[in-house]
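Thread: "does anyone have the structure for this chain?"

Original post by V.I.:
We have the sequence but no experimental structure in hand. Need at least a predicted one for the grant figures.
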Amino acid sequence: MKKLFLIPLMIVFVNALISGGYSESAEPAKVRTIELKFAGQLPEPTYQHTTCTRWAKELEKRSNGTVKVTMYHGGSLVTAPDLAKSLLDGVIDLALFDTTWTAPGTFPISELFIIPFILPSQVVAQNVFQSLYFQGLHTDFKDYKVLSINPTETNDFGFSKKKVTKPEDFKGMKIRSVDPPVISFLKKFGASPVSVMTGEIFTAMERGVVDGYYMGATTILPFGFCEVIKYSLEDQFGNCTHVFLMNKNAWSRLPKNIQAIINELNHEFQYWWVRAVDEAVKKNLDVAASKFGVQVYSFTPETRARFKKETRYLVDEWKEMAKGKGLPAEKILSEVEKLVNTYTHETLANMALK
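Reply from O.Q.:
Generated one for you, tokens below.
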């Protein structure tokens, strides 16, 4: 297992002005029971929610049963597009969601990392996210109590029939994607982006409605994609952000000792997340290849360099969007580049010492 270089979140506690956030038992007792509601879109046993479930169980254990978290997975309480607002409004106390599930521009800094080849690996991405937040540059989630800002595994491509080895191979293909930067470069290369809900991708692939999809490798087994794809193109095509947040009011009403426990857990959560992603990616790709005959491959270095060059315009587009929202776009880009270089060298050095 790789040694991980992760930056703990150091977050200023914020006092909220509205009421709510948790409920106490009605009957007088020596120990109050604090009940929190967690909502997320993805089902068990995806790594996103097994990791959150571990966090919730640890919180109950370390609080000696004072805090109990009810977990609502798979959109059973709040649907994906409504998670951010429902959390902000206090309908739920805790949530894990992918920022791409919200309207474009809602979380503008997170949109930078969907662009191909901005981040070289998931471990580096985790460090970059935390460092930007600590420096006050990652302001997407200022209206929430941040528990952990997490990158997904790199989003890659699964193809049912045609193997894509260069950008022009996308021409004429129908590819499922919902992320604006990806839709943009697919059109540039002559593909037709198709919007399909995650739960409908299998059927769309099976029936030929789409020829491929843009998703993370950890979806291959849970959603059965291994049965409908022949090729899995794994490269640095961008990282989505899965952010673990708490309603500010719910946070401010917690006793200080419970807040301390949660802050300790948040640091540990980052390690759990990276390891869970690493293990899930390996399992999905290994099983897809060995049991279903899926060919897993990457671009050649030459093609990778060309693809990166031909999608660089997306960075300029992001820069203009960010400036329009009053963000220090140049400063953010400069800092991201520095952090990527720093953590890439640290990760490589660590691997060399093993």
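V.I.: this helps a lot. Residues 7-29 have pLDDT under 50 and may be disordered.
O.Q.: and The first strand starts at residue 23 and ends at 24.
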